[in-house]
């Protein structure tokens, strides 16, 4: 399926600001990875991860 009626799920480099823009433009979902997780996956600060999660949820 192609064209303007195709479901769109952007991924890669999607942070809070981009997620809001993509959803407003009609995306059915967004894939938020590295901008959200940051260094937490490699043993970085989990408390900073919690802040990023909270900020994303509040923005949406």
Automatic annotation (TrEMBL):
Entries under SUPFAM superfamilies matching the protein: Aldolase
Q: Which domain of life is it from?
A: Bacteria
**InterPro entries from the entry?**
Aldolase_TIM (IPR013785)
Tell me what this protein is called. 2-dehydro-3-deoxyphosphogluconate aldolase / (4S)-4-hydroxy-2-oxoglutarate aldolase
UniProt organism field: Nonomuraea marmarensis
